[in-house]
Design goal:
Number of strands: 0
Strand content: under 5%
Number of helices: 2
Number of domains: 1
Radius of gyration: 39 Å
């Protein structure tokens, strides 16, 4: 059977009071742990962050190396193709020249 808004409110307040009482009894046992736990969590986070930065830097360097190699190969291919075209054009021009000896 669905509960009315008033009974839900009473139930919520009752649960809240029970939890507050339990926390009041348990809290002294954990009182000194807050700061050390927060510091440990922060140290772990910073360590993971530093590792992630290092891995990203290594990955970036690898990608840049691959890009540089690919550019060098493209440049070499373009130069050899230009040299071949230049030679074939020179031979073609020489065979058509009227000034042959």
């Amino acid at each position: 059977m669905p509960q009315s808004g008033k009974s839900r409110l009473i139930l919520g307040v009752g649960i809240g009071i029970a939890v507050a009482g339990a926390v009041r009894q348990i809290a002294p046992a954990f009182r000194g742990l807050g700061r050390p736990l927060a510091k440990a969590a922060m140290k772990s986070t910073l360590t993971l962050l530093d590792r992630g930065r290092l891995q990203m830097a290594e990955f970036k360097e690898s990608v840049e190396d691959l890009a540089a190699e690919a550019r060098a190969e493209l440049t070499a291919e373009a130069r050899s193709q230009a040299a071949e075209e230049s030679e074939s054009a020179g031979e073609h021009y020489a065979s058509k020249s009227v000034y042959q000896a």
